[in-house]
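Reading a protein record of the kind used here takes only a little practice. The record below shows the convention in full:
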Amino acid sequence: MDDERLVFLSTSSHGDGVRRQIEKVLEQRSKTFDAILRQAPTIEDALSLLSDGVGDLVAMSPLDWTQHQNESIAIVGLLSRREPTWVLVSDDKPEYLVKNARIVCHHPLLQRQMLRLRQDLELVTKTEVELEHEHDSREEIEALEALRQDGTIDGYVVKRSQYNLLSEKTRRHTLGLHKGSPERSHFVPPPLNGFTLIVGRVGFPKQRVEHILDPSAEFAYRIESALLESVPADLVDLTGIHVEQRGIGTILREAKKNNDDWTMSAMIDPEKKVRQSGTRVEMRIETLSVDGKVSACAEQIGPIEKHRIAMVNLLQEWGSVLTTLTSEHQATNRRVRNMPDAFHEERPAMMRIHSDESE
């Protein structure tokens, strides 16, 4: 029966933000939605209870889904996406940190993005400061904060959802996308951050929980997942991907603020009318060199109904830029008029992706 109570399952709070979000959503809907949240020790236990019919739905992260998906379960939908960007916890903004500031940052992509912002930063891993707590746990971030408080480190970079586990909040600085602000270093986040998946047995009627699901989050998740599958395995941890839907008005206001004539002319015709109404999908992808100085990036903005074409174009553009930047420039005998002699000489690749590559 449709009016039967639904049993949601999740694990305890982790740095992925899933437990906190599903708890909050069910609490907000408690007067109109007959559902209860039960805690399982692990995702494996939650899925076992789901299989046994003890629970109806499991809230999990994209990583949990990747590791535990099988033929008997399916993604019913997604909750609204949480902010996917990471944060720097420190007394000052990253631009104003002391020279050679010591920052704990374990994610390879964020390490390179931080170096792009400040070449002088001393970036260390959790192992180097002898942190051995469970990854993304409350204990881990409390230990990081203790190291910051006693001056061992000047700051640390973590997911926003892990920062929310701190018992006492302290200053944090968003490592944001900073669209249209060339004067600020941007941080395209690692793919699939901020998503909470609602998983059920195959055939579960989606309409029973449709009112708590977010179609735009599901759309972004599907595209980011597809883009991620096209990234070579050795580049997955070094590549940022971000997909979101944006209204025309928001895009135009941002373009006007940043004097972005190209976007304005692409959106507005000579008669000052919007060329095509409707929501746009914005896709970004970037891979950085070891030192953070060189970036292979691509961006696409277009109508939602043409998102497949935009995905293909994005990957082609990114792949082409990546190939060009990582290829050596061969010497050429053919002289190009008005070009200096150095142009015709052999030169190493502009971009070194892996630390074990030759300089």
Q: What stands out?
A: The mean pLDDT is 89.
